[in-house]
Specification:
The protein is of the alpha/beta class. It contains ten helices and nine strands. Bound molecules: nicotinamide-adenine-dinucleotide (NAD) and zinc ion (ZN).
Length: 247
């Protein structure tokens, strides 16, 4: 019933927007931070993922980041990412705004992806500004910890993700809220909706008149604002909705 309702809303959407969180990539084998099996049940997030920790001790940062990097680089998009790409291709979504840094929406074929928390696919030198693919930096971590910049030798090589204590990328934030204001349907997938300003995206959309669909493994604080709430796995629910849309 709710699947059909979600499909009906998306079928008539002219400016549909998706907001995704770590949950959409869970079935690709990338652990979420929050939630039942979340990494934050094992690590203190502010310690592991803050700019102050990184600057004080890049080796500690890279030691923690290395395992996640191996997992993320090997991960493949799942049926949820593919369904979202198909919805965009069919004109039912105009874009995906994501909190994820794994690049799996692009790998699945989504064309317009707004990365609110940056990208983990690239590493930037904080001294000279040069960038390198994460895969290349990752490959030399065995021999070089922390990794050094190939150009200037600095050890301040940071993935281009937004760490705690860093400003959000202004262009991505502007684009996300512009899309939210214009959206007629907002589809939230795999986000706990407790990380701001990402969680404001569906709020702005709803205030501007959008109808909201939530697909998440667990309840979220905004479920009561949604017209359709489906508690389930993104990789199972989204392909079912796509089927019903007939896209
Ligand atoms: P989050 O706030 O987006 O929460 C994840 C949510 O996904 C939880 O509510 C959980 O119940 C739900 N979930 C888990 N498995 C699911 C599934 N199969 N289908 C649908 N929903 C599912 O994210 P977080 O984990 O608290 O991470 C916070 C921030 O850290 C993110 O916004 C992101 O910037 C970064 N992060 C990125 C990745 C990634 O790039 N894949 C992974 C972890 C964390
Ligand atoms: Zn450099």
């Amino acid at each position: 019933m709710s699947l059909a309702h979600a499909a009906e809303l998306l079928s008539s959407a002219r400016s549909g927007l998706a907001l995704t969180g770590a949950g959409v990539s869970a079935e690709s084998g990338i652990p979420t931070f929050r939630g039942a099996d979340g990494l934050w049940t094992r690590f203190d997030p502010v310690k592991v993922s803050s700019i102050d920790t990184f600057l004080a001790d890049p080796t500690a940062y890279w030691t923690a980041s290395r395992e996640r990097g191996n997992i993320a680089l090997a991960a493949k998009p799942n049926a949820g990412h593919h369904a979202l790409a198909a919805m965009e291709a069919a004109g039912r979504l105009v874009a995906v705004v994501t909190q994820n840094t794994d690049g799996l929406h692009q790998a699945a074929g989504s064309k317009r992806v707004v990365e609110l928390h940056g990208s983990g696919r690239t590493v930037a030198c904080l001294e000279c500004g040069r960038t390198e693919p994460r895969s290349e930096v990752q490959a030399r971590l065995d021999a070089e910890m922390p990794p050094r910049c190939r150009h200037c030798g600095s050890t301040l090589m940071k993935p281009t993700v937004i760490l705690f204590g860093e400003p959000m990328p202004p262009d991505a934030v502007r684009e996300a809220f512009d899309l939210a204001q214009k959206a007629d349907v907002i589809l939230v997938v795999g986000s706990s909706l407790v990380v701001y300003p990402a969680a404001d995206v569906p709020l702005v959309a709803v205030r501007s008149g959008a109808r909201m669909i939530v697909v998440n493994a667990e309840p979220t604080p905004f479920d009561r604002l949604a017209e359709v709430v489906i508690h389930g796995r993104a990789g199972e629910v989204l392909p079912e909705i796509l089927d019903l849309i007939g896209a």
